[in-house]
Amino acid sequence: MKPGTQRSISKRKIRRAFDRAAESYEQAAVLQNEVCGRLLEKLDYIKLAPQMILDAGVGTGGAVGPLLQRYRGSRLVALDLSERMLAKALQRGSLFRKPALVCADIENLPFADGVFDLIFSSLTLQWCNDLQATMEGLLRVLKPGGLLLFSTFGPDTLKELRACWQQVDSAVHVNDFVDMHDVGDIMLQTGFADPVMEAETITVNYASVDRLMLDLRAIGANTLAPGHRTGLTAPAALANLRRAYERFRVDRQLPATYEVVYGHAWKAAAGRRDDRSVKVDFG
Ligand SMILES: C[S@@+](CC[C@H](N)C(=O)[O-])C[C@H]1O[C@@H](n2cnc3c(N)ncnc32)[C@H](O)[C@@H]1O
Known about the structure:
The protein is α/β, with parallel strands linked by helices. 33% of the residues lie in helices and 23% in strands. It has helices at residues 11-21, 25-28, 30-41, 64-70, 83-89, 131-141, 159-168, 180-190, 209-218, 235-245, and strands at 52-56, 75-80, 100-103, 116-122, 142-153, 193-206, 254-266, 279-281. An 8-stranded mixed sheet has the order 3-2-1-4-5-7-6-8, with helices on both faces. The radius of gyration is 19 Å and the shape is globular. The two termini are 28 Å apart. The site of S-adenosylmethionine (SAM) has 23 residues, from α1, α3 and β2.
């Protein structure tokens, strides 16, 4: 197993963090909305007429309207660990075409085999404890010929914040993220066909570290990794963090790097052979 592809973040804590963030998510999720939009655009180049769609980790449902509009005859199932996020997602879609809501764990999908033609998942897989098992579940619920399209974060995400905290203390303050090559390898091992992986760097500028950390909290992206200390951070530690981050300041702004990874792969149609390699696109 590749480093970082298995860990044990408490589901209860993830659910609680996102339940708390459901009200503030929309306003703070500028990067997440941008990534979700870019992921949706990838469907422009893929010929598909799905009847059953799963949005796995739907959040407040930013992709629900666009997916239902793009695929007119489809039904969409919106899955999330957080009930409050799902309540927000229910407000999406038209009066006549609402998503069906399922409160469940993407690592333990409560669906029969071969139900979905398309699984869409934006910025959720980075919360999984066992990426291989999660991919196996996603493959299981896809129909033969179905597509998995996802985005997640790569290891350079929040690298400035991680480096600065390492100067301050030895606790874990930033979740770790799986390398895109390892994600691709896992998809192949799982049995997905023709996986394609891409990565891009998006930099978001903040006026202060405090603003960055407030935004992370507002979207529910609290650090929940094992080794993280719960409770309030000491004022002295925060002061040291602010000082350490100053070395990255450019034009009065503090950059926060996000390495965004996009991937897609197919469940091979019955009887079809595929080549056993991952296409990496540095777009
Ligand atoms: C960063 S948000 C992304 C939401 C949405 N896809 C978007 O692009 O705005 C991550 C979402 O994944 C959900 N989530 C995290 N871990 C999950 C899991 N194990 N199973 C299902 N949903 C999960 C969270 O509750 C949250 O709504």
